[in-house]
Structure formats: C-alpha cells, structure tokens
Amino acid sequence: MKTPDGFSLNPESDVSTRLDAPQTAKYEYGVHLQTSDSFLRFPSPLTSSLCTDNNPAAFLVNQAVKCTRRINLERCEEMETLSMAYYSSPKILMVPGSGIEVPVTVQSIVIRSLNKTLTRLEDTTAILRVSNQGVVEAGHIEICTNVVLEVTYSLTYTDAGEVIKADLFLLLGAVSSAMVPLQQKFEIYFIQQNAKPVPLSGNPGYVVGLPLVAGFQPQKGSGIIQTTNRYGQLTLLRSTTEQDCLAVEGIRAPVLFGYNMQSGCKLRLTKALTCRLVAQKMKSLLKGQGFPDYVASFGNSQAQDVLDWVPVYFITQTSHVKDSCQLPVALTVEVRWTKYGSLLNPQAKIVNVTANLISSSFPETNSGNERTILISTAVTFVDVSAPAEAGFRAPPTINARLPFNFFFPFV
To answer: How far apart are CA 121 and CA 110, in angstroms?
Structure first.
C-alpha cells in the first residue's frame, strides 16, 4: 500500500492492535482484519509459549510465530484449533464495515507422517478426507491424525487498502504422545496487487554503482518503510549549470555505492527573508523531501529484518556567534563498509552511516542588498575492513612410541 508521499509499506510488527479502532472506508496499516462475524484470528504466544487464539491479524503486518498447545490425544477431535476448518472458514471483509466478503481459499495441503515424510494432496476427495482430525490406535499408541501443524495466510491487497484475495497453505500431520505439547507455526504476509519486485542492489553484498537501500522505521518494533523509487531512497543535491538552489529544488542525485560525490548550488538571500525561514529552507534543500533514518547492511536486506539495517547517526554542528544567523550550509554523509565473508568472494557490508549537518554564522544584514550563500552536499565511502590474515592449520604432533624390545639384544 502506498502513502501519499509514494512510499510502500512492508513492515513487520509484534505490537498488539487496538480492537476499538475507528472504521474507515479502507484498511490502514495496523488495523485488524475484520471478518463476517469478528476478526481474523492469528494465534500467537503472548505472556508464555502457549498459543493465544484471540490475537487479531493486522493489515500489512507480516508475522511468523511459533507457539505450543497442551492437548489430550483422546479428545483431540473436540479441539477446533487443530482442525483445518477453523482456519479456512473465516470470510474476510474487503474493507472495514463493508458487506463484501472475501473467502479464504485453500491452495495447498501437505500431509506429514510420523517418520517426517511429506505428501501433497492433489484431488478434492483426498482434501475432504483430511478435513477433520481423528484418533487411531497403532498397537498400544494412540495417534491423532490430520492435525494442523502449520498455517500460512497470503493476503492480496490493492492501493486503495482493499483485501481482494485470501489464500491458505496448510501442513497437517499425525501427532503421538511423544509430540505433546504440540508446537504449531503460524505465518501471515501481504502481497500488493500488480506490484513489481524491487531490483536488488546486491546479493547479498552491495555492488559498486548501485544505489544504497534506505528507509524509515515509523515506530519501534515495526519494519522498514521504503520508497518504491530505488534511486530516491538516499539522495544528495544535484549540481546543474545554473547553480541556482531554487531551480534545482526537488532534483536529487542518488547515492551510489562506492562512488564519492560532491555537489552544491547557490542561494540568493534578501532582507525580506527572516533568518528562521531561510534556515528551514536551506535544511530542506540539503536533506531533501525525506532523509532516511536506516540504511540496509546488504544489498538484499529485507524490510522486515530490522537487524539487517544500520541506523543513520545524524550530527549537527553549529558555531555560536553573538547577533548572528545560524544557517545550515553543508551536509556530509560518511558510509563505512567492510568486506564480509570468504576471501575468495568478499561481500560489501555497510556497518555505519553518519550524516553531519554543518551550520555557519552569518551577520544580520540591514541593507537591502542581496547575499549569495553556497550550500553543498557530499558523500564518502570508507573501507574499514580489517587486513585479511591467512589461516593455517596447526602442525601435527608426532606421538610415536617404540616397541619395548626395539633395542634387543643390545639393551
């Protein structure tokens, strides 16, 4: 789903969603998914490892969890949370409060036996046969069959915040007393309709000349939000022949991995402009429309894997002079990277990003003459790789013993 600024949402969060959120004409990020009778339940471990079934699934919140259940094999047929129908019967509302229902379609059912072999069901008759769990006896051992072990929801949505398709993938299996308490796995992810895959900037390490992957984290614990324009995620000023900052406003140059770059422009100031207004304008010119607060460590880092992203450390430098106007005049970005992995095929990994906003003092002018200020942006890449040291195995130790009569008959 795109925001008004052209950003697509692909975050992952473990925060609980408010069930009393106001109803809107579309789903928004974090709003729980409504069904014809309540909400789409997504079992999750909350205060313990036990599954809590009243946890709602939230829109655009990708999740993958594992939890355990205490079950009685003799009465496993009575536990609805072990049956396929419990997860396939809900009908999701296309938008909150609407009367249009989107049924959950079972796309795949895989059966796992006690010896871990997997069999995928193809025909409808076989699917109906495993729709309910049952208890069978194998010798002195009781086994509960057709128990839901893994559940995966795949929901397709539109730019308008509508859920238009819901697919379900199930893993069923047999459970014996040795597998109690039972561990189940649940996953839900969202796919945007007609969305094109975003090209990578490396796999996994960055490739020289490709743009840096950057984004924002709207709240702690959530995933990373990225703009759909891969060349607009981290940008600097673009120099032109006119050198007029107002003429090039909005025209940015992408930061490409391994390419040091410096650019700038000139800004003409008059007496009619106040210091505060000019400072805000110059800061906006230097940072652009949306300066990111996270950069991906690798060229293929996923938005939901927040640990694979490094924060951008923003530093502001000012020089305090009495009766002067503090104006930001330069933005320098330093990207530190290292070679990661094998010596034969090292991968470029970003380990630190620092953005330094430099301000200078300018005296207040009382004359009506214009003043021209030069502002600039720059990015430098610093290789902080430790020198590679070839490793050698320890030399073998000789632990040989002579036979006790080796020197016979001399000794």
So the answer is: 6
pLDDT tens profile 371-397: 788 999 999 999 999 886 766 667 777
The two tokens of residue 220 are 């702690």
pLDDT tens profile 148-172: 899 999 999 988 889 999 999 999 8
DSSP string, 5-39: TSEEP-----PPPPTTPPP-SS--TTPBPBBSSSB
Mean pLDDT of 76-94: 87
In which band, very low, low, confident or very high, does the pLDDT at 49 lie, cut at 50, 70 and 90?
confident
The string of pLDDT tens digits covering residues 259-296 is 999 998 888 877 777 888 888 888 888 998 889 999 99
Enumerate the domain spans of the chain: 31-192, 210-383
Q: Specify whether the CB–CB gap between 184 and 149 falls below 8 A.
A: yes
Residue 187 neighbours by CB distance under 10 Å: 16
Helix (H) or strand (E) run with residue 88 in it: helix 85-88
Q: How far is the CA of 264 from the CAs of 206, 220, 237, 365, 377, in angstroms?
A: 27, 35, 6, 24, 6
Q: Which long-range contacts (CB under 8 A, 24 or more apart) does 97-103 make?
A: 97/23, 97/34, 101/36, 102/163, 102/164, 102/165, 102/166, 103/166
Region of 406 (left: φ > 0; alpha: ψ -120 to 50; beta: rest) is alpha
